[in-house]
């Protein structure tokens, strides 16, 4: 999703996730499915209020989790969740506030698509270099479609979903306008796969795709 509406409303962020992301249960549960069980070190980029983090903690209780987000209000909400009391939170830009060490898995949802292309490419290199052997990167985002017809249909379906799940007309219009402003610069699924391979990733594949949203999994 675009973060324009969400950045203004950290206390409603978790509710808005469900109102703005069609099939949100399938989207996030697929993310969790690709996280190995046991004692793994996880880095979550742009973690927001810990919506996904809470799901990861419930499904992978032995994992060590570090989260980065630039919004202090979002982080305060996350820190207030009892299930996340042992999570390490870092306030900062994901392009700069990078923790030392390496990780078994790095995950990002609904963030990287909005970065300028040069920053995306640089970040993918940083992610690759921060993963251990056999490490995994999971990227869940909005993707540009291959045809104008697909874009028109999926955009219309997205609008109907948001309006039908409790978002105000003003919020929906702001979401759509924010997406329209950057849409031409967003990667298609294939373009993102190519960028990840260029960064050194192998076995890049798409286990989930529903209209505008998809998940890409890549291994080192």
UniProtKB/TrEMBL annotation:
UniProt keywords, alphabetically: Methyltransferase, Transferase
CDD domains referenced in this protein's UniProt entry, alphabetically: AdoMet_MTases
Protein name: Methyltransferase type 12
Gene3D superfamilies documented for this protein: Vaccinia Virus protein VP39 (3.40.50.150)
Pfam families noted in UniProt: Methyltransf_25 (PF13649)
Superkingdom to which the source organism belongs: Archaea
Domain Methyltransferase, chain residue ranges per copy: 42-135
């Amino acid at each position: 999703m675009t973060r324009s509406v969400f950045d203004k409303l950290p206390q409603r962020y978790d509710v808005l996730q469900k109102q703005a992301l069609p099939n949100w249960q399938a989207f996030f549960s697929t993310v969790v499915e690709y996280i190995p069980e046991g004692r793994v070190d996880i880095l979550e980029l742009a973690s927001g209020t810990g919506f996904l983090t809470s799901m990861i903690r419930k499904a992978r209780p032995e994992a060590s989790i570090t989260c980065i987000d630039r919004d202090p209000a979002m982080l305060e909400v996350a820190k207030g969740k009892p299930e996340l009391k042992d999570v390490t939170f870092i306030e900062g830009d994901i392009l700069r506030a990078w923790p030392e060490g390496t990780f078994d898995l790095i995950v990002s949802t609904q963030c990287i698509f909005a970065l300028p292309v040069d920053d995306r490419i640089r970040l993918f290199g940083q992610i690759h270099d921060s993963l251990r052997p056999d490490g995994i990167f999971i990227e869940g985002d909005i993707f540009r479609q291959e045809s104008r017809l697909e874009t028109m249909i999926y955009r219309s379906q997205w609008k109907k979903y948001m309006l039908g799940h409790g978002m105000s007309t003003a919020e929906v219009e702001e979401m759509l306008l924010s997406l329209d402003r950057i849409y031409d610069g967003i990667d298609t699924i294939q373009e993102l796969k190519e960028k990840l391979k260029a960064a050194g990733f192998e076995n890049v594949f798409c286990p989930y795709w529903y209209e505008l949203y998809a998940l890409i999994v890549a291994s080192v």
